[in-house]
Each structure stands twice: as structure tokens, then as C-alpha cells.
């Protein structure tokens, strides 16, 4: 899904991960996780008219997400359905005690990923923005959360839905979710020649040939571009 | 209650409770039947809020063809337990019981309230189709 998705992305990825891979995009605040995920998926769909994607916002509302993308020059893609779980939670909080319950989240996401309502079959790509918010919504803690996520990811893999799960953290080196996923992409900000630059680095990607070095990522009027590898 | 089907029932009440009920009925100038019906409806709604939908809630919805048709539509978008809870919530907000739903209860604001969560989960043409179907139900069409 990465190759050919954005200008310069082929410098990072020599082959694509298999369909059904679960990949985390990990980084601190302001490292372009949401925008990059959206841009990669949109770029992929532009080249594959038979595919479609579903994007779950759990922290931000759909309007907030679109405003954020709009500020970076993105337009809504007709084949990316943005599903606003943040607003659904608010909608259900009003009247019923408990509203959207903890156990609803995974079942709802899996149900919607099947794409049954329009008779078009399952979605090809799923973005989870963010995995932190999903974990916070689950009733379990620690190992139980990871077990629940393991089953959840297994289900998505078995349906061949390629998943991008966004994680906001400053502790990129070690996350408990890492052993559950097929790929880890780090997004970050680094000081570079008296300036700050955003970068992308693939930490792990099963069944895929890729570079390990960090590459500069830039937002231009034409969209997000991978500019070239970081040179010390 | 006009136009709704009713079922006659007999229940045994504690004599002191009955005396209080009778006095309340006189003070409020409302019939015992109205007060008891409202009290039962309130109790069922309150428990549903606290405990979420029970298998009984789904069964009650399925007994009413209008409610059953709406639930069937919601099941395209939501897992069953969530769909039942969401539907019960929206009915409660409109002051109607799902099992007693009539076409005339499906007012434009009620349809809009049901459409909103659907639109959050399936924006665009599919949620428009959902509200069209509810509009047809409100006019008595199958």
C-alpha cells in the first residue's frame, strides 16, 4: 500500500507489505500521523479504483479531522469513509447511562469493516485513529487488553483488511503493542541544519523490503512528500 | 392511549400501597389506570437505562412490526446489542416505547434522531436511504 502512494515513498519501501498486514504509525504530537495515514491511503486508492478504505476517528470528530486535513491542503477522498466514533460516543452519552459501552468498540469496528451496509463487501484498508483511544475505551487492562487486541487484529488479518493503527507516544522504542503487529513505522521530528524536520523511519515490516534509515517528510502545497534520507 | 391496543389485567396490591395510590389519584385528579401505566413505563425505561438491553428488549421490539423493521435497518450498521440499545434510547428520548411504536410516532425529528448515529457510521447515500425507509414506514408503507 505504500509504494507509489506518495512522491518519494518508493525511496523507503522497495516492496509492499502483504494485504491484511497490521501496521502501527508511531510518533509524538504533531508528527503528521493522521495526515500521513490519510495521504498514503488516498494515494493508494487513486491508483486502485476497485479499492476503498474506512477511517475511524476515536479522539477527534470527523469535522475536526477534515479541518485538520484541509489545513494541510487535503480534500476528502470519495472512497475513504470517515466514521466518527468520537461523536457517536457523545451522541449516546446524552440519554442512556453508560451510552456507548466498552465492549461495543471492537464489535462496532469489525462490523463496519465488513462493509455490509452498501453491499460492496469488506473495505481494503482500515485506519484506526487512534489505538491509544481504543485501548482507553476497553474495559480490560494490561494483558487482557493485548489479548483483546490480538483477537481483533487476527480478525482483520483473516479478512485481508490492511490496517494502519496510529499510536501517539514519545516512547517509540518500546510499546506493548509491538509484538502484536506486522509493521512499525516511526514518525518524528528531528533537529536538522539549524531547523526542525519531520521524518519517517520503518522500524519493522514483515514480508517487505524496505530501508531502515530515516527519511525527511515535508508538507508541500501539492501534498506530503518524502524528500530523501536524513544525512547527518 | 387512544388508538392503542390495550390489555386488561388484574393485580393484587398491598392494601396500604393501594390506599396511597387511591389518595394520589384523587389529589392528582388522574385515573389509577393512567398512574399505574406511567409508573410501569418509567420503571422499565429506568431499568433499561441502567442495565442495557436484555434479550427481552429485543423480543419486545420484534413483536412490533414497525420497531422490528427499524431494528433490521439499524443492524446493517451496528452490532445487535448496540443497535437495540441505541433504538431504545432514541425511543425513550421521544417518549415512546419501542414495542408500542406506531407509524405516526415516526415524526421528522424522530427520524432525524435515528438517522444521526447512522450517518456517523455510514455517511452519505446509505444514511439517506435509511431515512427514506423510515419515512416510508411513517406513512404506513412496508
Structural write-up:
The complex is a heterodimer of chains A (232) and B (142). Chain A has 232 residues and is of the alpha/beta class. Helix content of chain A is 29%, strand content 27%. The two termini of chain A are 29 Å apart. The mean pLDDT of chain A is 91. Chain A is globular. With 142 residues, chain B is an all-alpha fold. Chain B has 2 domains: 13-51; 53-142. Helices cover 68% and strands 0% of the residues of chain B. The longest helix of chain B has 20 residues, at 32-51.
Key descriptive features of the protein:
heterodimer; A: 232 residues; alpha/beta; Rossmann fold; nine-stranded mixed β-sheet; 6 helices; 9 strands; globular; B: 142 residues; mainly alpha
Summary of the model, kept short:
The complex is a heterodimer of chains A (232) and B (142). Chain A has six helices and nine strands, in the order E-H-E-H-E-H-H-E-H-H-E-E-E-E-E. With 232 residues, chain A is an alpha/beta fold.
What's the CATH C level of the domain at 19-176 in chain A? Alpha Beta
Uncertain runs of chain B are none
Structure annotation, total helices of chain A: 6
**What is the radius of gyration of chain A computed over CA atoms, rounded to a whole number of angstroms?**
17 Å
Biggest interface, CB < 8 A:
A-B, 25 and 24 residues
Average per-residue pLDDT of chain A, rounded, comes to: 91
- If you consult CATH, what is the topology of the domain at 19-176 in chain A? Rossmann fold
Number of strands of chain B: 0
Class inferred from helices and paired strands of chain A: alpha/beta
Query: Helix segment count of chain B?
Result: 7
Overall shape of chain A: globular
Number of strands of chain A: 9
Order of helices and strands of chain B: HHHHHHH
User: What's the end-to-end separation of chain A, in Å?
Assistant: 29 Å
Query: How would you classify the quaternary structure?
Result: heterodimer
Report strand % of chain B.
under 5%
Q: How are helices and strands ordered from N to C of chain A? A: EHEHEHHEHHEEEEE
Biggest pleated-sheet summary of chain B = none
Q: Give me the Rg of chain B, rounded.
A: 18 Å
Q: Summarize the main sheet of chain A.
A: 9 strands, mixed
Helix content of chain B: 55-70%
Amino acid at each position: 500500500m505504500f509504494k507509489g502512494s506518495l512522491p518519494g515513498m518508493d525511496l523507503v519501501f522497495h516492496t509492499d507489505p502483504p494485504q491484511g498486514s497490521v501496521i502501527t504509525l508511531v510518533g509524538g504530537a504533531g508528527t503528521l500521523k493522521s495526515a500521513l495515514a490519510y495521504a498514503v491511503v488516498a494515494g493508494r486508492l487513486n491508483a486502485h479504483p476497485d479499492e476503498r478504505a474506512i477511517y475511524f476517528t476515536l479522539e477527534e470528530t470527523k469535522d475536526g479531522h477534515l479541518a485538520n486535513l484541509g489545513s494541510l491542503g487535503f480534500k476528502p477522498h470519495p472512497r475513504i469513509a470517515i466514521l466518527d466514533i468520537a461523536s457517536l460516543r457523545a451522541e449516546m452519552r446524552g440519554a442512556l447511562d453508560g451510552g456507548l459501552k466498552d465492549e461495543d468498540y471492537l464489535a462496532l469496528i469489525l462490523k463496519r469493516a465488513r462493509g455490509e451496509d452498501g453491499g460492496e463487501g469488506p473495505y481494503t484498508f482500515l485506519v484506526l485513529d487512534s489505538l491509544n483511544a481504543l485501548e482507553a475505551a476497553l474495559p480490560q487492562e494490561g494483558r487482557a487488553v493485548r489479548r483483546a487486541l490480538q483477537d481483533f487484529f487476527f480478525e482483520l488479518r483473516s479478512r485481508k483488511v490492511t490496517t494502519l493503527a496510529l499510536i501517539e507516544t514519545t516512547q517509540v522504542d518500546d510499546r506493548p503493542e509491538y509484538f502484536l503487529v506486522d509493521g512499525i513505522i516511526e514518525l518524528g521530528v528531528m533537529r536538522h541544519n539549524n531547523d526542525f524536520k519531520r521524518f519517517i523511519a520503518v522500524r519493522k515490516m514483515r514480508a517487505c523490503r524496505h530501508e531502515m534509515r530515516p527519511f525527511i517528510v515535508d508538507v508541500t502545497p501539492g501534498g506530503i512528500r518524502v524528500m530523501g534520507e536524513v544525512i547527518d | 392511549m387512544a388508538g392503542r391496543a390495550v390489555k386488561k389485567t388484574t393485580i393484587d396490591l398491598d392494601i396500604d400501597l393501594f390506599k396511597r395510590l387511591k389518595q394520589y389519584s384523587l389529589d392528582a385528579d388522574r385515573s389509577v389506570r393512567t398512574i399505574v401505566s406511567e409508573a410501569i413505563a418509567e420503571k422499565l425505561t429506568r431499568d433499561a437505562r441502567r442495565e442495557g438491553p436484555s434479550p427481552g428488549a429485543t423480543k419486545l421490539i420484534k413483536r412490533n412490526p414497525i420497531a422490528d423493521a427499524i431494528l433490521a435497518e439499524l443492524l446493517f450498521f451496528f452490532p445487535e446489542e448496540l443497535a437495540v440499545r441505541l433504538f431504545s434510547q432514541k425511543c425513550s428520548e421521544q417518549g415512546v416505547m419501542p414495542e408500542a411504536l406506531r407509524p405516526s410516532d415516526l415524526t421528522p425529528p424522530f427520524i432525524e434522531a435515528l438517522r444521526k448515529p447512522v450517518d456517523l457510521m455510514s455517511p452519505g447515500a446509505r444514511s439517506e436511504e435509511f431515512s427514506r425507509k423510515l419515512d416510508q414506514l411513517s406513512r404506513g408503507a412496508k
